[in-house]
């Protein structure tokens, strides 16, 4: 399935071939192109800037060590995004098995005394509300609504069932509606 995503950056085959030969400048260019999308994905799924940075670093190390596995049967950005999603979900699984940290609100969105445009204020409220959700629920919402994954794809990524993904989406949507005081348009839950 093709997803609409901020990862959709065309990477020339020549750059990939150079990276496969170990050309450090090719890896640097790939890193620069994908640094922001990977970090943003890590932040949205893990909820913490430090973990997002670790997702970025671990993802790029895997790209460097596994680039020979990329066969070009799908876009490079899709292959790289899959690695980034896997890294973020692995961190969430480790956190769930070990301990639960308090999610930290993204300090980049903190109030700095200047008024935000209405759309930015709404986006900041939505991001803050997302941070109140448990990490797995937040991840399901992000993967479904933003990254465009299906419930089956999310289930496969998380090692769960599609019904798990659907129930997390429904719970998360209800919690967001309550947090943001939004009433459903049809009166039915998702």
CATH architecture of the largest domain: Orthogonal Bundle
Relative strand content: under 5%
Q: What are the secondary-structure elements, in order, as H or E?
A: HHHHHHHH
Oligomer: single chain
Largest sheet: none
| Sequence stretches where pLDDT stays below 50 over 5 or more residues | 99-117
Short key terms for the protein model shown above:
190 residues; mainly alpha; Rna Polymerase Sigma Factor, Chain: A; Arc Repressor Mutant, subunit A; 2 domains
3D architecture notes:
The chain has 190 residues and is mainly α. The chain folds into two domains: 1-103, Orthogonal Bundle (Rna Polymerase Sigma Factor, Chain: A), CATH 1.10.1740; 116-183, Arc Repressor Mutant, subunit A (Orthogonal Bundle). The chain is built from eight helices and no strands. The chain has helices at residues 13-20, 24-46, 49-66, 76-98, 118-131, 135-146, 151-158, 162-180. The longest helix is centred in the first third of the chain and has 23 residues, at 24-46. The chain is elongated, with a radius of gyration of 18 Å. Mean pLDDT is 77; it is low at 99-117.
Write the layout of secondary structure elements.
Elements: H1 13-20, H2 24-46, H3 49-66, H4 76-98, H5 118-131, H6 135-146, H7 151-158, H8 162-180
């Amino acid at each position: 399935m093709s997803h609409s995503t901020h990862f959709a950056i065309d990477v020339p085959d020549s750059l990939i071939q150079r990276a496969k030969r170990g050309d450090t400048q090719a890896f640097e260019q790939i890193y620069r192109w994908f640094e922001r999308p990977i970090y943003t994905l890590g932040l949205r799924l893990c909820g913490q800037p430090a973990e997002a940075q670790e997702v970025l670093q671990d993802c790029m190390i895997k790209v460097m060590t596994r680039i020979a596995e990329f066969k070009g049967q799908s876009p490079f950005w899709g292959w790289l995004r899959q690695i980034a999603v896997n890294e973020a979900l692995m961190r969430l699984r480790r956190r769930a098995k070990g301990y639960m940290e308090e999610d930290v609100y993204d300090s980049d969105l903190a109030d700095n005394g200047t008024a935000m445009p209405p759309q930015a204020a709404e986006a900041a409220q939505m991001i803050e509300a997302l941070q109140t959700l448990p990490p797995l629920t937040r991840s399901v919402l992000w993967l479904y609504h933003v990254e465009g994954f299906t419930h089956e794809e999310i289930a496969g990524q998380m090692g769960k069932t599609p019904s798990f993904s659907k129930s997390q989406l429904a719970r998360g949507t209800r919690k967001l509606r309550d947090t943001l005081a939004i009433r459903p348009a049809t009166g039915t839950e998702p």
